[in-house]
Amino acid sequence: MGCNVLIWGGCVSRDIFNIDGGEDFRIVDYYARQSFGSLISGPYNHDLLLHKIKSNFRRRMVARDFLKTFLNDAENISSADVIIIDLIVERLNLVVLPSGHVVTHSNELRESGLLDESRFRDYQLLKSGTEERRNYWSQGMGVFFNKIKDLGKMGSVLINKVYWTSKVDPQGFSPLSISQRRIDFENQELEWMYERLAEFLPESQFLNFPSNVLVADPKHRWGVTPYHYVPSYYRIAQDMIRNKFISDTSISS
Questions:
Q1: CB-based burial, 125-148: b 16+ in 10 Å, e otherwise
Q2: Which residue among 12, 86, 88, 183 is least packed, with the fewest CB closer than 10 Å?
């Protein structure tokens, strides 16, 4: 019996299912590079800008962020045995447009040219770590979980509790292109968000990892970064999800 998985996050979660054993899982949907904070506004439609993004995958990510597609995705949410969430995307800032719409400040958004248009030059940038962005994130998290709760899927949620690392295998500490100060800052923000999530979810719905697998892989397919980990992380994560799905009857529709 396969396990239906919906992912809200990024490659730190998606790549778990790209290794051996991934055939045991079926990805019913994958919401990438969208902050919880973007969910607090209504949908924003700008098809002309989306056509400037060359990659179909990147274009789809921005379109879903614009339109808040997740909130209308009852079919895929309901069909998921596991809804895995990671917060690495929350390193991105939020953009509040003059219209009041909120979108995620991703590279793909910049590629669209939206913020270069004269009518959008008065947009507001909510930077990571600020109280205002935290407030938007908290509200958006509430919107997200209200949707999950309405569909009876709270027991299906698993939080992929990962942190940025300054360790690179096999060298131990290695100079990355990102400073230790930035890594420490991002981990402080992650810890704050995990504490907020713990108000919604029990500890049993968090995937916790030993520090020796949260190590950057210099040979990672997407390049060496503080959140592209060594192969053992993906194997352990997959096993944890598989064991949880098989043994925990709370993960059900």
A1: ebebeeeebbebbbbbbebbbebb
A2: 183
Length of the chain measured in residues: 253
Q: What is the DSSP letter of 95?
A: E
Q: Which residues contact 74 (CB under 8 A, 6 or more apart)?
A: 151
Nearest one of 190, 36, 9 to 126, comparing CA atoms: 36
3-state secondary structure of 18: coil
Largest CA distance in the chain: 55
How many other C-beta atoms are found inside a 10 Å radius of the C-beta of residue 205?
22
Residue 251 has what DSSP assignment?
S
Q: Does the model's pTM come out above 0.85? A: yes
**Domains of the chain, residue spans:** 3-162+181-206+231-247
CA atoms of 222 and 11, how far apart (whole Å):
9
Strands 157-160 and 206-207: parallel
Query: 121-153 pLDDT, tens per residue?
Result: 789 999 999 999 999 999 999 999 999 999 999
